[in-house]
Amino acid sequence: MTPPLSRRTLLQATALTAAATGLTVAPAGTAAGLTAAPAGAATAAAQPAWKVRPFGLGEVTLGRGLFADKRALMLDHARGYDVNRLLQVFRANAGLSTGGAIAPGGWEGLDGEANGNLRGHYTGHFLTMLAQAYASTGEEVFAQKIRTMIGALTEVRDALRHDPAVLTGQGRFGSAVEQVRGSYRYVDLPSGVLGNATAVTLSAWVKPTHDANWARVLDFGDDTTRYLYLAVRNASGVPRFAVTTSGPGGEQGLNGTAPLPLNEWSHLAVTLGAGTGTLYVNGTAVARNTAMTLTPAALGDLTDHWLGRSHYIADPVFAGAVEEFAIWSRALSAAEIGELQGARAAETSAGPGDLVSYRFDETSGAHFADSSGRGLAATLRRTWGGPSHPGFLAAYPETQFILLESMTGSDYTKVWAPYYTAHKILRGLLDAHLATDDEQALDLASGLGDWMYSRLSRLPAATLQRMWGIFSSGEYGGIVEAICDLHERTGRAEHLALARLFDLDRLIDACAADTDVLDGLHANQHIPIFTGLVRLYDATGEQRYLTAAKNFWRMVVPHRMYGIGGTSTGEFWKARDVVAGTIGATTAETCCAYNLLKLSRSLFFHEQDPAYMDYYERALYNQVLGSKQDKTDAEKPLVTYFIGLTPGHVRDYTPKQGTTCCEGTGMESATKYQDSVYFAAADGSVLYVNLYSPSTLTWAEKGVTVTQTTGYPHEQGSTLTVGGSGRASFALRLRVPGWATAGFRVTVNGRAVEGTPTPGSYFTVSRTWRPGDTVRVDMPFRLRVEKALDDPSLQALFYGPVNLVARSSATEYLKLGLYRNAALSGDLLPSLTPVSGSPLHYTQDGIEFAPFLEGTEDPTHAYFRRSEPRVVLGGLDAGMANPARSDGTTLLDEIWAGAPFRNKGALVTRVQDVVAEWVAAGLLGQEEGEAVVRTARKASYTP
Question: Which of 442, 447, 460, 564 is buried most, with the most CB atoms less than 10 Å from its CB?
Fold first, then answer.
C-alpha cells in the first residue's frame, strides 16, 4: 500500500506548482531504474520569481574526489560528536538536568568570549550540518542525532513556559536542591525570616560546582546599601560573610582562610551575638570579629531574602547544590555547630532552626517547606522571571533581547547579537524539519517566529532602525531569509510581517540607489542581510530589495575581494578598491565567503549572470575548501576563522576559544558542496552545469540522470554522461569560466559542437538526449596573475580556477618573475617547474607553489611582489633592465599584454611595435630597443 504524502511533501508540492519541483516522488513516465531521492533530499521550496531552481542535496550525489574527501572529514566529526554537549546550555537555561554533559566551551560556554553571550548559535549550525548530512547520505545516525536534539529542545521550551521546578540531587544526608550553572535560578524566602533577631545563626550545606567569585549562598537586603550576605568566594577566593547598613564601605565582615573545594560538600555557619561574629567552615571556626555590632534587628525589615542570588547585578548566580538551610534566633555554640557536621539539625541538640529551616528534600514543584513551625515556605524562581511569550527558545535568558531595545551603542559583553543566535537556531530547526519531516521542529520554529513577532511588532520603527544599526549587538545574520522560509511553510501573515521588521532602511536605500556606503561596516553583519532581501523580494515583489542586493554584490565583488574569494579585514570593510592596503593577519573571515556564496546563488536564481557562478567557483575552490583542515577531529570541525594573507601566514584551524561562527558555517559548507553544481530552468527546459565536480544528478522530472566524471581541478575538463531509459529534450548550458581564455571545447558522443564559447558565459547544447549520450568538455588551464586593485605589483597566482600559494616561512613578500619562459599563448606556466607526483604543485628557484585549497599548516604566501628586473624573452636575457612607465607598467607587461600570439612571428611583430612606441616616447634608447627585438627573434618559445 502506498503511504500517504507527508505534510512536508504536500507543502513542497503546492509551493512549487509551475516550477520544476524536484519532488521525491517521480512523475509518471520516469525512466525505469530511477528511484526517488531519499526523504531528506528535497531543497527548500523554489519561488515563483525564480527563473532557475536548485536541486536538493539528495538529488545530487558527490562522486569520488576532492569534495567527497573533504566532506568525509566533516561527516566523521558529525557522527562522533555528542550532541548532549550542545544541549547542555539549553537545558541549563531551562533548569533541566544536563546529565553531566560538559558544554563545548568557547563561544558556547559561560566562560567564553563576552561571558558566553552567543551560546546556542552553534547548536543551530550543528543542526543544519546534520540535516544536510542526512539529506546527502541518508545515514540514520544523522537523523537520530536530529531527533535527539529536537526532542530535547522541545523539553527545554516546555520547561521555560512554566515556573521553574526543583532539580534534585544527592545531598550530604539525603536529597538536595541543585542549581545548574547557567540556570539563573534562586530560592526566594518570604519576609520575616530574620525575625528582627538581636542574635542569629545561619547554617547551610553547600556543594559549589564553579569557582566564580562573589556567588552568594544567601543575600538578604533591600539593595546594595542595606544587607547581609554569605558568599562562597570573595575576591580572594575564600568564603565571606558581611553585614552593612551603609553599603560596601560600611561592611562588618568575616573572611575564611581557604577556598571551598569544588564538587564536594562543605558546611558553612555564621553566628552573630553580643558584638561578636564567627565564621565556621566544616565545624571549625576560621574567622572571628569582636566588633560586629550589626544584627538583623539593626537591619530592620528587608525587601529580599535570597538564596543563591546577589543584589549586585554583576555577581554570578550560585552554581552547585544546597542542602538544609536554617536560621536560629541565637548564636549556637561551637559544640552545637560541631554536631551539625554529622546529622541534620533536627537530629542534633540545636534542633531545626526556629526562625526558618529548609531540608530541601522536595523532588518536584517550585516550593520548599519550612520545618521551623513558622510556615515560611520558600519558592524557586528565575532571576529574569520568565519568557514574554510561550514560543521563546534560547540557551540564555530573554534579557539580552530586552536590553537591546534600549541600547544606543555596542557592548557585546552585555548584549551580543541575540537575534543572530536566534537566526542560527531558527535555521537549524527549519533544516531539521525539511530533512526529517519532524513536525516538532517546525512547531519550535513557528513558535520562535511568534515570539519574535510579539517582541518586535510593538516597538516603534525608530527603535528597530536604531537596534539594527548597532555594531555586533544588533547583528541578526540571515534571520530574514530564515523567516521567509518559515512563512513559506506556515503561510502565516505575521511571519512575513516579522521578516520586514528587520529592514535596515538606510542601508537598503543606499544600496538600491547604488551608493557605496560599505566603508567601515562590519562585513559579516551585513552580507546575509542581502540574501534576506532577495527572499523578501520573492515574497513581496518589492523591487528595491532585489536591486539593493544586486548593487551590493557588485560593491564587494571585485572591489573588496581578495584573490581567494574572501573579503573583510579585521572583520570590517575598508574603502572601495583598497585590497593590498587591507592585507593583514585577520583578513578574509570565513563566514563572509560562506555568506557571499549564498547571496551569489540567490541572485543567480533571478538573473543568470555568469559572474555569480564565476565568483562561486573562485570562493568555493579556494577559500572554502582551504578553510577546512585535511584531517578529522572528534572534538572540533577544524575550520579557520580568519585566513591571514600576510606573507608566511599559517592557518589556524582551532580559532579563538572554539565554537565560533566560522566553525559553524564551516560545518555547513562542508556538508553542502554539491548544492550549486546543477540548476534547472523553472520550466524544466534547461539544465545549467555551473561547477565541474564529480557528481551524479537524479533529475526525476525528466527521468534522467547526469553523471559528471572528472578529476577537476586536477583534470582540465569533465565528462558528462546521460542515463535513464528514455529520451529527454532539454538544453544543456555549460559554464565557460571567465579564466578559460585558452579555449573551451565541447563534443557530444565524440563530435565537436559548433559555436564559439566565450569566457565568462554559458555555452548551450540543445538536443533530445538519449541514455549513453556523452558530453566531453575540455578547458585548458593557463597560469595567470591577478593584480591587487590598489597595487598592481602585488599579485596572486592562478592556474585555471586554483589559487597557487608559495610555501615559505619568509615574512616579507616574495619576489617572483614569470615572463622569463612565458609561452606564445600567454601562459606563464613554463616559468614554473612541475613537482613530480604532486599535481598542481610547482617550484621556482627552490620555492614550492601549491593549491590554496589544501588544508595544511604550511606557512603560505597568497600574494607576491612581481619582479621582472631584466628583459628576458624565451629564456634569453636581452642584456638590459626592464624599463617602466611612471604608473609601474613595464616594457614586458606591454609586450605580453598582446598575448596570445598565433606564432613566433606575431610575437616578434608585437615586440617591434611596442619597442617603437617606447623609443618614440623617450622611454627606451634606440640601441636598447634593437637589442630587445634581436632577442625576441633569437629566442625559442613554448606554444
Answer: 564
First-to-last C-alpha distance (Å) of the chain: 66
Q: Check: CB of residue 555 under 8 Å from CB of residue 518.
A: yes
User: Positive or negative CA dihedral for 284, 287, 292, 297?
Assistant: negative
Q: For the residues 785-796, what does the mean pLDDT come to? A: 96
- Name the pairing type of β-strands 320-328 and 356-358: antiparallel
- Rounded to an integer, what distance in angstroms lies between the CA atom of residue 76 and that of residue 546? 39
883-922 pLDDT, tens digit each: 999 988 999 999 999 999 999 999 999 999 999 999 999 9
**pTM exceeds cut of 0.70:** yes
pLDDT tens, 76-102? Answer: 999 999 999 999 999 999 999 999 999
649 secondary structure, DSSP code: B
Q: Are 396 and 463 in contact (CB under 8 A)?
A: no
In 10 A of CB 749, how many CB atoms? 10
With residue 746 as reference, give the H or E element that holds it. strand 745-748
**Contact between residue 179 and residue 205 where contact means Cβ atoms under 8 Å apart:** no
Phi-psi region of 6 (alpha: psi -120 to 50; beta: other; left: phi over 0): beta
Distance CA 600, CA 432 (A): 24
How far apart CA 637 and CA 76 sit, in angstroms, is 9
HEC string of 53-69 equals EECCHHHEEECCCHHHH
pLDDT of residue 41: 44
Q: Which residues contact residue 463 at a Cβ distance below 8 angstroms, ignoring those fewer than 6 apart?
A: 405
Minimal CA–CA distance to 475: which of 525, 550, 515, 537? 525
On whether the CB atoms of residues 339 and 348 are closer than 8 A, the answer is yes
Angstrom distances, CA of residue 227 to CA of 57, 130, 205, 242, 900: 61, 51, 21, 8, 85
Confidence class of residue 657 from pLDDT cuts 50, 70 and 90?
A: confident
- The residue count of the chain comes to 943
